[in-house]
What does this fold into?
Amino acid sequence: MYLGIDLGTSAVKAVLLDATGRLAAEADATLAVSRPLPGWSEQEPEQWWLAAGEAVRALPAPLRRGVQAIGLSGQMHGATLLDDKDRVLRPAILWNDGRSSRECAELEDAVPDLGAISGNRAMPGFTAPKLAWVRRHEPALFAAVRRVLLPKDYLRLRMTGDAATDMSDAAGTLWMDVRARRWSQALLAATGLDERQMPVLVEGTAATGVLRPECAAAWGLPLAPVHGGGSDNAAGAVGAGVVRNGEALLSLGTSGVLFLSCDAYRPDPRSGVHTFCHAVPGRWHQMSVLLSAASCLAWAAQACGATDAATLLAEAQADDRPCREELFLPYLSGERTPHNDPHARGVLFGLSHDTTRARIARAVLEGVALAFRDGLDALRHSGSSIGSISVIGGGARSLFWGRILAAALDAPLTYRDGATVGAAAGAARLALIGHTGADVDSTCAPPAVQQIIAPDPVLVAHAAKRLPRFRALYRALQPSFQENCNV
It folds into this structure.
């Protein structure tokens, strides 16, 4: 058995794959996010640790005892700050935290070739601007920082005692020379740090340490090796078999990602497209990122008094009429691609006396789909050629939403086995590859196809008509977003 642990934003998921890569068991434990101020997003690392143990222990005990290797994946960019005794100094600042826009501008001024080195613009979601913010606003705490870890790597430290991270997750810090796959001294120095405060860099298939006896006993596991793993997106791609040049996936989770596997380093930071290392050796990837995707539906359910997101989705499906007046901007946490605008906010536009809860739900589904279209166009603008698109994440459960997405993208979407456990399964696959020496391409064959959703011509025409209005609404409101954040 091979164990994959994915530390997400809303839950920790644990899966077991057998020696053939087949899913044998899965479990999860929920997490909560703290938002102490507008635009802030934090979690307590201890919450991650407790949830990881809960998820692993929920797997069948006989299968757990047969685990041969473990892989980790997790939410990107989070700043976990530790002192010289590896004690947590403050709540971790998460990927969707928008407080450091000033520091982003200062980093780009301080390092003019930042985009060429890191493959990315400086955006508040990245780790480096967060540390620059801490240095300015919490100087005593910054002076005590002896180690900075990404979320999944805090779990690794607790599990093994080793401070290490993989290339794909490290590439999201803004401290890495992404082409060379190593830490950049210049980018670290720009935030007042050096390589001694960074974890060791490894490929996603490499072993980084062995479970501590006390962790193995508490979780009912043998003393298995823990492998590098990957960022949630790169590990999700491994799980979906998206490792070859031109293969793509759409991840529909708390956030939304269009991910494109590449055989070379092809940065295009001006477009808001991210360029990172892949979780498998010698490969890279590009991606466009929506900070709020399925989380928009959860927000709408709460705001409209629905029992949960699934109930609201069912109401929209029962109504099943495209929106004509209602329009939704899904920027509840700001936005990355293509706007790089931490001040952007969600908007429901075009409401009338005829607007029902089902109409609002449909507007949310369409708004997220149109934001994905913005991301797709940004990837194409970078010169990338995009082949088949597989769908993963919790939103992959809804083929109804898939019809709306396929129409907005005007591209077929492929739904595969195990789509909802992609990142955790990918982490387990990386452990399997590293432990057995298996070939990457054959081990990462795409899972069996469940369904392909072709674009509906009627819905394609509807989305094409709505897209200019969607983009114009953001442009019209963009100055107001900035003013609102300065109030």
User: Anything to note?
Assistant: The mean pLDDT is 94. The longest helix spans residues 457-485. The longest strand covers residues 23-30.
